[in-house]
Amino acid sequence: MQIRFFQNVEDETKRLSRLIGGLLDLGRLEAGVTLLEKQHIQLVSLIRLAVRAVETRMQNSQISAQVNVADLQIQGDSERLLQALLNLLDNGIKHSPPDSQIFITASKEGRSHESSPNDSTWQS
Fold first, then answer.
1. Positive or negative, the Cα torsion across 13, 41, 78, 68?
2. What is the model's pTM?
3. Which intervals hold domain Histidine kinase (predicted)?
């Protein structure tokens, strides 16, 4: 029980640290001090990294993630994209009832993108 408590404290500390870091980064971007670092990214790897980062919170909330992502390579700033994914997952965890799933899907269908955060699904 005590180990679980400390794990929760650690997870929440990391989450708050990411939130503060994101706000600082946003301020720097708006001020023109920081530029986005565009690079080629394996989307499935980035999504799996985000899911692993919130895994303990999902388990504590009795929520699971279902990842169905095509082998896509995208170009973008991996840190900013990771922050966006973590925000979506955090919202899914906060607003989903226990014993539910967060579905993360990504596929290439022309140039269209679709996002549906209301049902804890992220699609691209």
1. negative
2. 0.67
3. 1-110
